[in-house]
Amino acid sequence: MRDEDSRPSGLPGNELAALLGDRFTTAESVRGHHGQGEGWHESRPPDAVVFPETNEEVMQIVRLCTASGTPLIPFGAGTSIEGHVVATHGGVCVDLTRMNRILDLNTADLDCRVQAGVTRKQLDKRVRGEGLFFPVDPGADATLGGMAATGASGTTTVRYRAMRENVLGLTVVLADGRIIRTGGRARKSSAGYDLTRLFIGSEGTLGIITEIGLRLYGIPEAISAAVCQYPDLRSAVDTVITAIQLGIPVARCELLDEVMMHACIRYSELSDFAESPTLFFELHGTRDEVAEQARRLGEVSDDNGGGVFRWATRTEERSALWQARHDAFFAGLAMSPAKRGLATDACVPISRLAECILETQRDIEESGLCAPIVGHVGDGNFHLIILCDPENPDEVRRGNELNAKVVERALAMGGTCSGEHGIGRGKREFLVKEHGDGVELMRRIKRALDPTDLMNPGKLLPD
């Protein structure tokens, strides 16, 4: 692996400018924008940014950069929070947002193929008129290429699963400039290695994803959202665990602790709610199915001391509730505008969730930091937004220690260091603790596909 302070041996600026014209730039403002995501990691701009529009242009960009020893960093919407787009070694940032066409839509087979720069909301708007939707919802309007590269999931994962289960195939430009296509439109295959899932979650370290084949779903006949508040965190989490164990098919199940609700009430103007642990639910199905799910869920909630369910069946009401949930990260930051948010991402088996969250809450109290809890608890995934002053070394130290405690506990409980954010720069040290000797196999795959370590270097694998 390269030293972080090294730089490319020779930026192929003239060649890239000849290929792309004004879609090649070294402007400081553009480079600065592409040198950071939404997370707490230090900004490191690339040496140049390119805006390809076709697979062939990406192929030529990769070949030019490989020949000159120039690192390549894929870039989508810039919404990642683990430092995936930080140019730790300089190089060329490949911004795929102009590759934003929906290439193929097959309503009868419930699938589509899109370019990597298509965003989740753009796709949803296009297919909604056909009575379809794409379910993976990480909150941010991320590009689908970025979502595949990080193995994203989100609020609907408890029912519809994550990107790994919803990607049918990929088009990828490898480090040597070859274009390969993985998977297909069939719903299953036993033909050889599963190359599609090799690239999902690879974070741009094995190649640049340029096209994605996706599963689509029919819009349910009935959708109902509900909010219920609880006297304490255990009551809320126990409600979730029991509902999942009983097989109630909730489509979304989100937890906000009392600190997070304090932030959201102010940021999203949720004045009708109390500052207490809260669950956001959504149910999908026929009208009879949703009614039965609601009845059973209400019984479970009552048994755990839950308050009155507040139901929202109209689209605008549901949208307002889920927008408040999606804005939780920014609501947390608004509590202390001078601080940055270190967002953790732990996922544990559902049976250990209450224990894990309650122990984490004690860690927060001992740290002396403000760290609201929010999460997709229906699949055992939760986050802290640890607020730290980047100019205060002691706060930064305590924030990193708290983050490490959360991850170590998740691993000890049979969970993972990252349920959905990916590894990027921020969690490389934990990869060995989770996968052991498996990391060396990952290194061998990396060396086989990218022997000169030019594809998003310094990410995912520990140095």
Can you characterise this structure?
The chain is globular and about 65 Å long. The chain is of the alpha+beta class and 463 residues long. Helix content is 37%, strand content 20%. Among the domains are: 102-218, Uridine Diphospho-n-acetylenolpyruvylglucosamine Reductase, domain 3, CATH 3.30.465; 222-330, Alpha-Beta Plaits, CATH 3.30.70; 337-422, Alpha-Beta Plaits (2-Layer Sandwich). It has helices at residues 13-20, 28-33, 55-68, 120-128, 144-150, 157-160, 163-166, 195-199, 233-245, 258-267, 287-303, 315-326, 328-334, 353-367, 393-412, 428-435, 438-449; strands at residues 24-25, 48-50, 72-75, 92-95, 102-106, 111-115, 132-133, 167-174, 179-183, 207-215, 217-218, 222-229, 250-256, 278-285, 310-312, 340-343, 346-347, 373-375, 381-388. Strands 12, 13, 14, 15, 16, 17, 18 and 19 form an 8-stranded antiparallel β-sheet that branches. The chain has a 5-stranded antiparallel β-sheet with strand order 5-6-10-8-9, with helices on both faces. It has a 4-stranded mixed β-sheet with strand order 1-2-4-3. It is built from 17 helices and 19 strands.
Instruction: Return the average pLDDT rounded to an integer.
Output: 94
Main β-sheet: number of strands, strand sense, barrel status?
8 strands, antiparallel
Q: How large is the share of residues in beta strands?
A: 15-25%
C-alpha Rg (nearest Å): 22 Å
Number of helices: 17
Query: Shape, please?
Result: globular
CATH architecture heading of the domain at 102-218: 2-Layer Sandwich
Helical coverage, percent range: 25-40%
CATH topology of the domain at 102-218: Uridine Diphospho-n-acetylenolpyruvylglucosamine Reductase, domain 3
Under CATH at level 1, the class of the domain at 102-218 stands as: Alpha Beta
Structural class: alpha+beta
Total number of beta strands? 19
The parts where pLDDT drops under 50 for at least 5 residues are 1-8
Give the terminus-to-terminus CA distance: 6 Å
